[in-house]
Design a protein that fits this description.
MDM2, elongated, two-stranded antiparallel ribbon, alpha+beta
Length: 101
């Protein structure tokens, strides 16, 4: 009779530590007057500021119809953007330039 081989003992899976949010992302930042006109004057984390700007853009249908990566400025966004249309990739720089340091 052939003897059955014993299966090698399984190694215990290494436990992953829960990711902790980076405190720098969660620090509240105060918007300047141009940014406050769009999102309000309450200090918020950078992630919330960007989310509020996107909420405003979507609520007012300001994304370009043909090229969704472009955002058209309305009366509130024009002073913030400084031009009629910006790319969504420029949004982070615009936020950074319009927070009080």
């Amino acid at each position: 009779m052939a003897t059955a081989k014993k299966a090698a003992p399984k190694k215990a899976a290494a436990k992953k530590s829960a990711r902790k949010p980076n405190a720098a992302f969660m620090a509240p930042l105060a918007p300047n007057d141009k940014l406050a006109a769009v999102i309000g004057d309450k200090a918020s984390p950078r992630t919330e500021i960007v989310k509020k700007i996107w909420d405003y853009i979507k609520k007012n249908s300001l994304q370009d119809k043909k090229n969704k990566r472009m955002i058209n400025a309305d009366a509130k966004l024009k002073p913030l953007f400084g031009k009629d249309q910006v790319s969504m990739f420029e949004l982070a720089k615009i936020v950074n330039d319009n927070i009080k340091k």
